[in-house]
Amino acid sequence: MEMTVVEKQKTIQVLNPISQKGLDYLGEDYQVSEDAQGAEGILVRSYNMHQFPLPENLKAIARAGAGVNNIPIEECTSKGIPVFNTPGANANAVKELVLTTLIASSRQLFDGIEWAKTLSPNNGPIPKQVESGKKQFVGKEIRGKTLGVIGLGAIGAKVANDALELGMNVVGFDPFVSVDMAWELSRSVRRVYDIETLYQDADYITLHVPLNDKTRTMLNKDAFQFMKSDVHILNFSRGELVHNSDLKEALEMENIGKYITDFPNEDVLTMKNAIPIPHLGASSQESEENCAIMATQQLKDYIETGSVKNSVNFPDVTLSPFRHMRITAFHNNVPNMLSQLTQIVSKFGINISEMMNRNKENVAYSVIDFESSVDSSIQEQIESEMMKVNGMISVRILG
Ligand SMILES: NC(=O)c1ccc[n+]([C@@H]2O[C@H](COP(=O)([O-])OP(=O)(O)OC[C@H]3O[C@@H](n4cnc5c(N)ncnc54)[C@H](O)[C@@H]3O)[C@@H](O)[C@H]2O)c1
Ligand SMILES: O=C(O)CC[C@@H](O)C(=O)O
């Protein structure tokens, strides 16, 4: 009788809806579950993972999106779990919504629509009421006005370039802009090196920075005091970048004009001249598919080969498939690690076919390919010896 050995499927836990186009990339060796039971990978969008107990067997987390402030990065690093994101995959979707709302708020479209919905035939013919009431909603064209873009990454650079095409003057601020993004950016964007100049010059300000300890509440009363009193501020990055009570006061006192945000909270909903949008920046079919495909591929590639692409806490390493066995080790970025690891391998009389080491800030990732396979008891011994090396965080044996 012929026996079929059924390989156990790997489990990927999904914490938010992930486009099926992305999940299809996992193939039949994987099962997708909302349950943490045995999960080796997690796919997540905006779910807040800070109080979330990480599954015991977890190998990696992939964020289908850009911002990773909902993930406990430090905890993941200390446990040797890479966190991936999908840079640029939703940038076009966000850019389109930023430009849409920039024009719509400038033309008082949101207020106008709300007013139109309140009209009643009891007060006379609707067309007559429209024509007599529309004068309250005379807006401004954006052509010839100045847009200040804070953060010139994947989204900010796209917004800046397209705003120029719409006839705006664009001022950009980003002290850490990457070389790739600097190449993307039109030379007509005027870069400034002090943010106050941007605040002073801009008729519209759009925020495209990550939320971190340096950017939290960066828009506060000290910032608002430099701005034009009719400035429109667009926040499609994160709510916490803006100081709530300072914002409320600035809007009440008409020190700023309007606040358009993709991140409404209890306070924002009651603020004068605030326009709440229910986090729709990345909610296009194309963007959801792009993010899901990129996140799934990166997660699967890491689980199966140890390759690292677009991780926020691991160094990038592109690896070709291995023939027999591969060891990946994640450790502190200290001297002599690779030689300690090769010594352990050679003690077991194993030939090494390839090895490499990459670092990122204070951590590093070493990969060693074996020229032959070894049985599971030797694998266990190698893993346990490597885990004893000073500075070692995690070890995986693949194959
Ligand atoms: N509304 C949405 O649905 C949505 C979608 C995607 C991204 N986002 C948010 O937008 C943010 C930006 O996304 P992205 O794809 O452009 O990311 P990105 O990493 O490509 O760009 C961020 C840019 O901000 C710059 N920066 C960092 N700190 C800064 C500071 N203090 N001052 C000025 N610039 C600074 C960086 O140098 C980088 O160029 C994300 O972190 C996320 O929070 C929101
Ligand atoms: O998943 C989403 O809908 C939003 C994602 C967005 O906030 C991001 O940071 O990429």
TrEMBL record:
Its EC number is 1.1.1.399, 1.1.1.95. Keywords: NAD, Oxidoreductase. It catalyses: (2R)-3-phosphoglycerate + NAD(+) = 3-phosphooxypyruvate + NADH + H(+); (R)-2-hydroxyglutarate + NAD(+) = 2-oxoglutarate + NADH + H(+). The keyword Oxidoreductase applies. CDD domains: PGDH_like_3. InterPro entries: ACT-like_dom_sf, ACT_dom, D-isomer_2_OHA_DH_cat_dom, D-isomer_DH_CS1, D-isomer_DH_NAD-bd, NAD(P)-bd_dom_sf. Pathway: Amino-acid biosynthesis; L-serine biosynthesis; L-serine from 3-phospho-D-glycerate: step 1/3. GO terms for molecular function: NAD binding; phosphoglycerate dehydrogenase activity. The keyword Oxidoreductase applies. It comes from the Bacteria. Residues 326-399 form the ACT domain. Belongs to the D-isomer specific 2-hydroxyacid dehydrogenase family. Catalyzes the reversible oxidation of 3-phospho-D-glycerate to 3-phosphonooxypyruvate, the first step of the phosphorylated L-serine biosynthesis pathway. Also catalyzes the reversible oxidation of 2-hydroxyglutarate to 2-oxoglutarate. This is D-3-phosphoglycerate dehydrogenase. The lineage of its organism: Bacteria, Bacillati, Bacillota, Bacilli, Bacillales.
